[in-house]
Amino acid sequence: MNKINQKLQEDKKLLSIYFTAGYPNIDDTVNIIQNLENNGVDMIEIGLPFSDPLADGPTIQASSTQALKNGMTTEVLFNQLKDIRKSVNIPLIIMGYFNPMLQYGVEAFCKKCQEIEIDGLIIPDLPVDVYHDEYKATFEKYGLINVFLITPQTSDERIRYIDSISNGFIYMVSSASTTGAKSGFGDEQTNYFERIANMNLNNPQIIGFGISNNETFTQATKYAKGAIIGSAFVKHVTNGGVETINEFVKKILI
Amino acid sequence: MSYNVNEKGYYGKFGGAFIPEMLYPNVEELRQNYLKVMAEPEFQKEFNQLLKDYVGRPSPLYFTKRLSEKYNTKIYLKREDLNHTGAHKINNTIGQILMAKRLGKNRIIAETGAGQHGVATATVCALMGLECIVYMGEIDIARQAPNVARMKMLGATVVPATSGSKTLKDATNEAIRDWINNPIDTHYIIGSVVGPHPYPDMVARFQAIISEEIKWQLQEHEGTTKPDYVVACVGGGSNAAGAYYHFLDDEDVQLIAVEAAGLGVDSGESAATSVLGREGIIHGSKTLLMQTNDGQITEPYSISAGLDYPGVGPMHAHLYKSGRAEFISITDDDAMTAGLELCKLEGIIPAIESSHALAIFEKKQFQPNDIVVVSLSGRGDKDLETYIKHFKL
């Protein structure tokens, strides 16, 4: 069974962390992954940096720009990860924009992911229908879970459709925003969280965007299976370096 | 073969809407409504009235006597430079502001490179009394001070894009991010035939007035609605899309697209996307774009700020790949020389973008009886400083 599905079956709320590969330093990738696993994080999104990250706010943009300057490429990332399964067991997801995958070759990309035992992909700018018509078979051939996003503006009908073609979890974007734009949840968010929880979808939901501390993590996981922290973690690593990851995770999980 | 968009938003294999889910409702609302709204008689009436009374259309189709003599062929200029705000850009912003009003939007955002589209957007927002925010690369703000001042005078807020390379592509990213953060009340006026479907088609339809007029104007001049060639410069490609639109499926009319070679196609400082680009995704569209082997979008170069976009509209990618249009690239130097030549021979100072289109007469021989229509997309006032520097005037 895919490690993501296994993890989703555990009777606990999940903490997933996003980080940008090759940031702050090009060789930090493996170290960060090991650190996150050792400190009790449940799932990791490895950000493949892109020059034009449309859905991201300033923090992840800046980390992506720096990672590219450091020399990060798709090939370099795959090389860094080639022995990753010798040291960690945590579910690993690559999150990146579609163009670098397209240039690598979607099938070659998926094949490589299977070789190094990546469990899933999140590709914000690969539309649901294009995935369904052109790439679903390839993803499935290589055992990869594709994770789709929904937002407060996504219609119930479309959510049902997305649920029907998902095979892991649904990434619930907490508010209409880019990453790192807002912090904390108001009535609008909690109403939306409740609405989705009441839809009884087949796939569990994990909430992302706007989660930065124990309070927002607890709020989000009241309604969903887990929560994802991205910008706040990238900021922490920027300021404190990779050695202080334990402090960050401790504060979230208390 | 049709060269127009299909019902799924593709030109051949190019186009589509490769956007994050956060943008889906905005783009979908537009997709479902744009054709319906544009077909409303009231919309058409208001659009045409504004083009006539406010923009100053129809723009003349002018037969150049001395230029034609020099190159021994019949050269007509479609004078988009005479439009209000000085370029073809206003055709699109008039159309989109009327669209935005009908969709109930009260906040307008736009991207701009050199500032021409920003000015055209600020202009129509002032006209309609709508809030206007223009994203512009920090580097472009520094080098295009007069247009920044114009936008401010027209009541727009100019927001510097400080991410990435701090130019047009980053301004476009910032505008898209703004739209993600403001999904309900905001309309994004894209300035060219780029971006996710339905933008390339919608912008092409608003610019199609250019070729619609060429047809009846040429009938008056030459007794035919068909030129032998239509020539236009291509950055994103909106003036070319408008100049080609009504000739796309008539293969008797040959289409020539002129791209900016910058310092030379092989110099590393170029914006000739058709030659240097590969298929990929930029700003929500599958098209040809300049990128590294690894799929990172690279920064193009041209002396003309309106042509240095790393992608090209999906319609043009299809025209290039299918061979329907001939693509020619022109260097900075050749464009500048052609611009100065038009000043001397015809008393018209062209925008440097348009000068690229004019430079093909040194590259390509036409027959004496050929009717060649060149889209003179903009006037050169904005480029005076560049002309001064280049020719040490």
UniProtKB/TrEMBL annotation, chain A:
Describe which pathway this protein belongs to, using the record's wording. Amino-acid biosynthesis; L-tryptophan biosynthesis; L-tryptophan from chorismate: step 5/5
Show the catalytic activity. Answer: (1S,2R)-1-C-(indol-3-yl)glycerol 3-phosphate + L-serine = D-glyceraldehyde 3-phosphate + L-tryptophan + H2O
Stored Pfam families: Trp_syntA (PF00290)
What are the UniProt keywords, alphabetically?
Amino-acid biosynthesis, Aromatic amino acid biosynthesis, Lyase, Tryptophan biosynthesis
**Keyword set includes Manganese:** no
What's the top EC group for this one? lyase
Active site per database record: 45 (proton acceptor), 56 (proton acceptor)
The superkingdom of the source organism is Bacteria
GO CC, sorted alphabetically, is:
cytosol
Check the record and name the InterPro entries matching this protein: Aldolase_TIM, RibuloseP-bd_barrel, Trp_synthase_alpha_AS, Trp_synthase_suA
Relate the assembly described in the record. Answer: Tetramer of two alpha and two beta chains.
Please give the name of this protein.
Tryptophan synthase alpha chain
Q: Organism, per UniProt?
A: Pontimicrobium aquaticum
Per the UniProt record, the lineage of the source organism begins with: Bacteria, Pseudomonadati, Bacteroidota, Flavobacteriia, Flavobacteriales
Gene name on record? Answer: trpA
From TrEMBL, chain B:
Instruction: Determine the domain of life of the protein's source.
Output: Bacteria
The molecular function terms in GO held by this entry are: tryptophan synthase activity
PROSITE patterns in UniProt = TRP_SYNTHASE_BETA (PS00168)
Query: Reaction catalysed by this chain?
Result: (1S,2R)-1-C-(indol-3-yl)glycerol 3-phosphate + L-serine = D-glyceraldehyde 3-phosphate + L-tryptophan + H2O
Name the enzyme's class.
Answer: lyase
Cofactor(s) it depends on: pyridoxal 5'-phosphate
Q: Record's Gene Ontology CC terms?
A: cytoplasm
List modified residues, type N6-(pyridoxal phosphate)lysine.
Answer: 89
UniProt EC number: 4.2.1.20
Q: Which Gene3D superfamilies match?
A: 3.40.50.1100
Pinpoint the Tryptophan synthase beta chain-like PALP domain residues: 56-378
Give the metabolic or biological pathway.
Amino-acid biosynthesis; L-tryptophan biosynthesis; L-tryptophan from chorismate: step 5/5
**Short name of one Pfam family for this protein?**
PALP
Which InterPro entries has this protein been placed in?
Trp_synth_b_CS (IPR006653), Trp_synth_beta (IPR006654), Trp_synth_beta/beta-like (IPR023026), TrpB-like_PALP (IPR001926), TrpB-like_PALP_sf (IPR036052)
- Give UniProt keywords alphabetically: Amino-acid biosynthesis, Aromatic amino acid biosynthesis, Lyase, Pyridoxal phosphate, Tryptophan biosynthesis
Q: How does it assemble?
A: Tetramer of two alpha and two beta chains.
Q: Please state which protein family the record places this protein in.
A: Belongs to the TrpB family.
NCBIfam families given in the database record: trpB
What is this protein for, i.e. what is its function?
Answer: The beta subunit is responsible for the synthesis of L-tryptophan from indole and L-serine.
What name goes with this protein? Tryptophan synthase beta chain
